[in-house]
Amino acid sequence: MPHFNACGGCVMQHASDPFVACWKAGIVMGALEGQGIEGEVAQVLTSPPGSRRRARLSGRRLRKGALLGFHARASDTVVDNPRCRILTPALMALRPALLDLVQLAAPRSREIGLTLTESPAGADVVVEDARDLDTALRQDAAAWAAQAGVARFTWNNDLVAQSEAPWQPMGRARVVPPPGAFLQATREGEAALVALVLDATRGASRVADLFSGVGTFALPLAETAEVHAVEGEAAMTEALLKGWRGAPGLHRVTAEARDLFRRPLEAAELGRFDAAVIDPPRAGAEAQVARLAEAGVRTIAYVSCNPASFARDARVLLAAGYRMDPITVVDQFRWSAHVELATRFSRA
Ligand SMILES: C[S@@+](CC[C@H](N)C(=O)[O-])C[C@H]1O[C@@H](n2cnc3c(N)ncnc32)[C@H](O)[C@@H]1O
User: Fold this and answer.
1) For ligand 1, is residue 260 a contact (CB within 6 Å)?
2) Less CB within 10 Å around the terminal CB: N or C of the chain?
3) What domains sit in the chain, N to C, each tagged with a CATH number?
């Protein structure tokens, strides 16, 4: 653990897996207790080392060379980490090329952001806060992408090169997410969450997938149910629908770009669903959960990346008469303080 003391990506690399699992379960239990909820953590499913297939790193150009890594704890210092133990081997193999990219793209005065996503077609690389592209720099950037062998390369929202569409398997569909779009951080974590969601909604024939992203849950659900996916980013719903159209035989999937904080699905709209999946960002889904409770949707599979907002939303559902199943912690951010979980709420 050579970078454990400095790198902010991992705070618990010195601890055993059972200790970290227990610690994370304790964070969830603490959040529930804070809302006066008695709950149970049934299991903790931790993604293995070397499995993070999506990460946002920072890069800084130096007089000689470059730095590439996560930030130091509570600091804006970039910690260069040539032996990172969390990224996949394919992303680590890209590191020498990425250091060249930092030298090409970063202005002297500030760092750049690099969002890396592994796909079966090759890496999807996005740089942000990079130097402005002129003709010469665009050519250099395209040459970098060709030499690095990345599938797609986006520079300050500008598509510079694409040798192949960086698709992701979602059930039997193939989805090409927009550059930098959200994806579950590890394949193992995604598989665990999909299995939990499918299990929680088993038997449902019409499912609302709220905060659907590019279809991580919607497309596997469409094997057995009609799905209406709702997501804030139109580019993500478009990618989802394109993936669905390319996978004949699935049940009908419809999708809607909608801000679920300001305009949650109303109880009247929710009446036609016998199950809902909800996977909000860290803020939780206060407004949407209130409508789900009002509508009385029978089964709700809740996936959360923040135990505190989850516990607040859980309290609303429990007060409305729902029962909460034991919780599964899905740890895609091993050695960090980040905690994700999934459970089912149901009512008769
Ligand atoms: C935790 S991600 C889950 C995505 C998807 N369920 C998955 O597993 O890949 C949360 C999603 O909510 C979307 N989102 C964020 N704020 C939103 C809002 N106000 N209304 C609708 N969607 C929003 C994000 O774009 C992101 O795709």
Assistant:
1) yes
2) C
3) 17-48+183-346 (3.40.50.150), 54-168 (2.40.50.1070)
